[in-house]
Amino acid sequence: xxxxxxxxxxxxxxxxxxxxxxxxxxxxxxxxxxxxxxxxxxxxxxxxxxxxxxxxxxxxxxxxxxxxxxxxxxxxxxxxxxxxxxxxxxxxxxxxxxxxxxxxxxxxxxxxxxxxxxxxxxxxxxxxxxxxxxxxxxxxxxxxxxxxxxxxxxxxxxxxxxxxxxxxxxxxxxxxxxxxxxxxxxxxxxxxxxxxxxxxxxxxxxxxxxxxxxxxxxxxxxxxxxxxxxxxxxxxxxxxxxxxxxxxxxxxxxxxxxxxxxxxxxxxxxxxxxxxxxxxxxxxxxxxxxxxxxxxxxxxxxxxxxxxxxxxxxxxxxxxxxxxxxxxxxxxxxxxxxxxxxxxxxxxxxxxxxxxxxxxxxxxxxxxxxxxxxxxxxxxxxxxxxxxxxxxxxxxxxxxxxxxxxxxxxxxxxxxxxxxxxxxxxxxxxxxxxxx
Length: 436
What we know:
Layout: E1 13-15, E2 18-20, E3 34-38, H1 41-56, E4 71-75, E5 78-84, E6 90-96, E7 101-103, E8 109-112, H2 117-124, E9 133-136, E10 140-145, E11 148-153, H3 159-172, E12 176-182, H4 183-192, E13 199-205, E14 208-212, E15 220-223, E16 240-245, E17 257-262, E18 266-272, H5 287-290, H6 295-308, E19 311-312, H7 314-321, H8 325-336, E20 341-344, E21 349-352, H9 361-364, H10 366-376, E22 380-382, E23 386-390, E24 395-401, E25 404-408, H11 411-416, H12 424-432
Antiparallel strand pairs: 1-2, 3-7, 3-9, 4-5, 4-8, 5-6, 6-18, 9-10, 10-11, 12-16, 13-14, 13-15, 16-17, 17-18, 19-21, 20-21, 22-23, 23-24, 24-25
Helix pairs in contact: 3-8, 6-8, 7-8, 10-12
């Protein structure tokens, strides 16, 4: 993981004369990318506590982490707070909308900070009429309430979060809104949820929602019902609950889903992996895109556009860069390995994080690195409709459909059948190219 060290002349403080903010000098004359008050302090405080709750949670198995702290991004005209659970199977994000910000328009920037016990206590005490002031810069998050000021410093970003960021944007980009209910029905649904770690499906029932054991068209997958717990504190302030998912049909296996509470000033969403034991960092949703030709050039062109317009949809990116849709997907996938791209399902747009990491496709995706090693070793033999890849101690056959890998005889593919992206043998075939 990467970390930068900054020094401060003294701590920030809330004094009788006003808010005295200290910085390390940072970004020249504008070291903060946002400095202002929240128009709905209590809902923002509850939303930030929910994001921090997910960061502290392990919904599947306990893992030792050096850092479990939200990422804060100034993106065009909003602030975004993001985290992954300790098991990396839940991705939480709170978007504070323009109507929720009383200050200068947010600059473009990102930081990763602690939400320690003092800040948690301060946020928990924010009432309906209490002010809440946030100052966010590349090095820290300063939160001021009636009880005083808490400064949370920049901390290392876990490498697994980078892998999770790369996967989540690719998985959610294919989702559409499937269900929408008002806050009363949402609260009733969350209250009635059983404690169940199995795979359930959610369908409309009158004005509300109900659970079923089988997928049907229009249903949304829900595995590990306890993973929605972080929504409960905010639901009484929300107007709607919208649930996003991919299209399913009878017989479909578990898939990811997005659960989003919306208030007039913010959106809080939880994205659930297909099953509790599956962390987003291992889903492999971007591997095929990373194996495409000219992926580095596509990423550079997209990065230049997003630096000027931090939120754009896929069509706008294609027009602005002159790239074909598949090249846009490949470029976004590579930027995702550096944590520099996210996806907003509500707006159907991509947004840009300012991250200090280079794209690291192979380092963060061992299957891709293994595929390149197979190609360099000359392990791939291609024919018109079949490829043979010599792996460690065995040779595997990769079936081709219209020149593209469509299956493999290796044990890994037999176990997952595409649920976690292509195996390294299929990637090696893709990297080798179509037979002449």
